[in-house]
Specification:
With 109 residues, the chain is mostly helical. 43% of the residues lie in helices and 0% in strands. The protein has a domain of 66 residues. It contains 4 helices and no strands. The termini are far apart. Pfam families: DUF413.
Length: 109
């Protein structure tokens, strides 16, 4: 019987987490380790690139398809990852550009 979620390389999402999962602050240490260690398998199972080999992987695929809610730690972690990367991030700044639209002319009248 094959080991569940076996992968040959670590998972990194440089687009959304350029400094890594653990340094971003969205995930606990255990969650960030699970994403780095098993994220390639989660992504492949979620996208359909990989067929489930064990009962645990079949249950994970059923969760990804929306057939059942997240129950295991891996499913909850992957659900959290998917929700965080799909949400738009708002950025607020306190600096601005002084425009030329200043219509008040205080020259000698």
């Amino acid at each position: 019987m094959a080991e569940s979620f076996s992968v040959t390389r670590r998972f990194f999402d440089d687009k959304n987490y350029p400094r890594g999962f653990s340094r971003h602050g969205d995930y606990t240490i255990k969650e960030s380790q699970a994403l780095e260690q098993y994220g390639q398998a989660f992504k492949a199972l979620d996208s359909g690139e990989r067929e489930p080999a064990t009962a645990e992987e079949k249950a994970f695929v059923a969760f990804c398809r929306g057939e059942r809610p997240a129950e295991t730690f891996f499913e909850k972690t992957w659900d959290k990852y998917r929700s965080r990367i799909s949400a738009t991030k708002r950025v607020y700044t306190l600096s601005g550009v002084v425009g030329v639209d200043n219509l008040d002319d205080f020259s000698a009248e």
